[in-house]
Automatic annotation (TrEMBL):
Gene3D superfamilies: IlvD/EDD C-terminal domain-like. NCBIfam families: edd. The lineage of its organism: Bacteria, Pseudomonadati, Pseudomonadota, Alphaproteobacteria, Hyphomicrobiales. [4Fe-4S] cluster binds at residues 156, 223. The gene is edd. This is Phosphogluconate dehydratase.
Length: 605
C-alpha cells in the first residue's frame, strides 16, 4: 500500500524544512560513528576506572575492543509504580548480554517523578522541566564513552521523552527502549471519575475518594488509563524503538522477562561490531516522527506530546510543528476508545489487539510509512504482530488478527470511531493553542461564552466551592506557562468543570498551562502561546469578554474590537510564591530560558 498523499505531503514539507538542521545533525553523528568502538580511544587509566567493579570475565572482555558493551540508563525508583519493576532489569540485561557474548553496565540513572503524586501540588512546577534534566542526566551517564549501544528503561510522562532526547543526542549509538508494562486492571475508570466528581461536589468524603483512587492505582506498572505514560509506550512501538509487541505486557510475567532479555540481545546485535549496525540517529527520521504523530491521533493520545514530539524531533535535527500535527489529525481516523476516550483501559485495549493491531490497520490504508528503519530492522510491518511466550521460554511472534478482539475498544480502518484524530491546533487573535477532541462530544466542539478569568487554578477551585461559577462561561486560567511557573498540568480542574458541564452548563477552558495526558470531556484550549508571562494576548482578556473556541474550524478568538483589545495593558500576576520551595528555586534559570510551547517548551533547543 502506497502512502496516503496527505501523509506524504506533510512528511515532504518536514523533510524540506528540516534539511539544514538534519544535515548538520547527521554529519556530526557520522563523524562520531566513524571512530569505531569507543573504548579504543580511552587511556589505560580511563579504561581501568571504567571496568574496575566488573567481574573477572566482563573485565577481560572489556579490556579488548571486540566485545560489545551495552550501557543501561535506568529511571528506577520504588515509589513510582511504573518504574518499580525496573529494579531487577539490570541483572536480567547483564545475564542476557553475557549469553550473547557481550557485557552490560548500568551507565547511569535519571530522575523519574510522578505527575500523579504532584498533581495540583508545588512539585508539579518541576514536572515539564524534568524532561530536559533527564536528557542531561542520561548524557552524563553515557559520556564515559564506554558503550557500543544503550538500552533505556523508562515509561512515564517526561521520562521517555527525556530519554529519547538523550538517545538522539548520542545518535551514533544504537538504542532500544525497554518498557515495564501496565499494572493489572483495577477499579474501572468511569467509576473512578464518578467518585472524583462526587468528591468535588462534597457528596463523598476523603476516605471514599482515597479508597477509589487506591483501587485504581494498586500495584506495579503504569496507570491503566491512556495518558502520557501509555502514549509514550505506543510511540516507542510505532516509531520502532521497542521490540515488536512489547509495549503493554504486564510486569512480573514470564513474557515480560523474556522480552527484556531479548531486547538486550538485540541491542548488542545492532552495534557497529556486527553486520546490522543501526545508529538511532540514522534510524529515526522524518518518516518515523510522522508515524509517531499518526499513532498519537489514531489512539487519541496525550496532549503533552504536542510539546514532547516537537522537542524529541529537534534532538534529531527534525523541525516538527503544531501545523504538521494538526494537518495529520485531519487525515488520520480515531481507531481506539481507551479512557479518557472511552471506558476501557490499556489492558482491555491490548487484549483487543492493541497498538500492533492498529499498526496493521493503519498500514493497510497507507496512513503509516512502512519503509522505515526500526530496531528490529525489517520495516514497520514487522510490528503488526502479537508477542507470545514459546514452549522454550523464548519470545515468538504471530501476525495480528485482521479482526478486532473488541470492536468497541479497537476498530478497523474502514469503521473508525471518528474520521479525524485526537489533537488539533487552534489559531486566532489569542495566539496558538492545542485542543484534544477525541473525548469531547461533537456538540461541544464549538463553544462561545463569556470569560471568567483566573490567574491560577486555586482561584477557580475557590470560585467553584463558593458556588460562584454559574451560567455558561469559558474559564481562562493564565500565568501557567513555562516561563511563569514551569507549565504545570491543571488536571485538578477537570472534576469541577466536569460537574458544571454535567449540570447542563456550557463550559470550556483556555489556558497557557497544560492539562493531563488524560484530558477528557471538557473542551480545553491549552498550551496557549505566547503565554501571559510573555505579554501574550491571553493576558489582555478581561472578565466577561466573549471567547470562541472552535475545534471545527481550528480557531481561538476573543470577540472584542481589535483596536480596543490591542490597546489594553496586559495583566500581571505576582509569581513570587512560585519561585521557591520544593526545589523550585533551583529552576529559576530554566524558567528564564524556556522556549515557547509550540517549540517544545525546552531549555535545550
Amino acid at each position: 500500500m502506497s502512502v496516503d498523499p496527505r501523509i506524504a505531503a506533510v512528511t515532504a514539507r518536514i523533510v524540506e524544512r528540516s534539511r539544514p538542521t538534519r544535515e548538520t545533525y547527521l554529519g556530526r553523528l557520522r563523524e562520531m560513528a566513524s571512530k569505531g568502538p569507543h573504548r579504543t580511544t580511552l587511556s589505560c587509566g580511563n579504561l581501568a576506572h571504567g571496568f574496575a567493579a566488573c567481574g573477572a570475565g566482563d573485565k577481560a572482555n572489556l579490556a579488548g575492543d571486540r566485545v560489545p558493551n551495552l550501557g543501561i540508563i535506568t529511571s528506577y525508583n520504588d515509589m513510582l509504580s511504573a518504574h518499580q519493576p525496573f529494579e531487577t532489569y539490570p541483572e536480567t540485561i547483564r545475564r542476557a548480554a553475557r549469553e550473547a557474548g557481550g557485557v552490560a553496565q548500568v551507565a547511569g540513572s535519571v530522575p523519574a517523578m510522578c505527575d500523579g503524586v504532584t498533581q495540583g501540588q508545588p512539585g508539579m512546577e518541576l514536572s515539564l522541566f524534568s524532561r530536559d534534566v533527564i536528557a542531561m542526566a542520561a548524557a552524563v551517564g553515557l559520556s564515559h564513552n564506554m558503550f557500543d549501544a544503550a538500552v533505556y528503561l523508562g515509561v512515564c510522562d517526561k521520562i521517555v521523552p527525556g530519554l529519547v532526547i538523550a538517545a538522539l543526542s548520542f545518535g551514533h549509538l544504537p538504542a532500544i527502549f525497554i518498557p515495564a508494562g501496565p499494572m493489572t486492571s483495577g477499579l474501572p475508570n468511569d467509576e473512578k471519575v464518578r467518585i472524583r466528581q462526587l468528591y468535588a461536589e462534597g457528596k463523598v468524603g476523603r476516605a471514599e475518594l482515597l479508597e477509589a483512587e487506591s483501587k485504581s492505582y494498586h500495584g506495579p506498572g503504569t496507570c491503566t488509563f491512556y495518558g502520557t505514560a501509555n502514549s509514550n509506550q505506543m510511540l516507542m512501538e510505532i516509531m520502532g524503538l521497542h521490540t515488536p509487541g512489547s509495549s503493554f505486557v504486564n510486569p512480573g510475567t514470564p513474557l515480560r522477562e523474556a522480552l527484556t532479555a531479548e531486547a538486550a540481545k538485540r541491542a548488542l546485535a545492532i552495534t557497529a561490531l556486527g553486520n546490522a549496525f543501526t545508529p538511532v540517529g540514522e534510524m529515526i527520521d522524518e518518516r518515523s516522527v510522522v508515524n509517531g504523530v499518526v499513532g498519537l491521533h489514531a489512539t487519541g493520545g496525550s496532549t503533552n506530546h504536542t510539546l514532547h514530539l516537537v522537542a524529541m524531533a529537534r534532538a534529531a535535527g527534525i523541525q516538527l510543528t503544531w501545523e504538521d500535527i494538526s494537518d495529520l489529525s485531519d487525515a488520520v481516523p480515531l481507531l481506539a476508545r481507551v479512557y479518557p476516550n472511552g471506558p476501557a483501559d490499556v489492558n482491555h485495549f491490548n487484549a483487543a489487539g492493541g497498538i500492533n493491531f492498529l499498526i496493521d490497520q493503519l498500514l493497510s490504508v497507507g496512513l503509516l510509512h512502512e519503509d522505515v528503519r526500526t530496531v528490529w530492522g525489517k520495516g514497520l510491518s514487522a510490528y503488526a504482530v502479537e508477542a507470545r511466550l514459546g514452549d522454550n521460554g523464548a519470545v515468538v511472534r504471530e501476525p495480528v488478527s485482521k479482526a478486532s478482539g473488541d470492536a468497541k475498544v479497537a476498530t478497523t480502518a474502514d469503521a473508525p470511531f471518528q474520521p479525524n484524530g485526537g489533537l488539533k491546533m487552534l489559531t486566532g487573535n489569542l495566539g496558538k493553542a492545542v485542543i484534544k477532541i477525541s473525548a469531547v462530544k461533537p456538540e461541544r466542539h464549538v463553544i462561545e461564552a463569556p470569560a471568567r478569568v483566573f490567574n491560577d487554578q486555586e482561584e477557580l477551585q475557590a470560585a467553584f466551592k463558593a458556588g460562584a461559577l454559574e451560567g455558561d462561561f469559558v474559564a481562562v486560567v493564565r500565568f501557567q506557562g513555562p516561563k511563569a511557573n514551569g507549565m504545570p498540568e491543571l488536571h485538578r480542574l477537570t472534576p469541577p468543570l466536569g460537574v458544571l458541564q454535567d449540570r447542563g452548563q456550557t463550559v470550556a477552558l483556555v489556558t497557557d498551562g497544560r492539562m493531563s495526558g488524560a484530558s477528557g470531556k471538557v473542551p480545553a484550549a491549552i498550551h496557549v502561546t505566547p503565554e501571559a508571562c510573555d505579554g501574550g494576548p491571553i493576558a489582555r482578556i478581561r472578565e466577561g469578554d466573549m471567547i470562541r473556541v472552535d475545534a471545527v474550524n481550528g480557531s481561538l478568538e476573543v470577540l472584542v474590537d481589535a483596536a480596543e483589545f490591542a490597546a489594553r495593558t496586559p495583566a500581571t500576576a505576582d509569581l513570587g510564591a512560585n519561585q521557591w520551595g520544593l526545589g523550585r528555586d533551583l529552576f529559576a534559570r530554566f524558567r528564564e530560558a524556556a522556549g515557547t510551547a509550540d517549540q517544545g517548551a525546552s531549555v535545550l533547543y
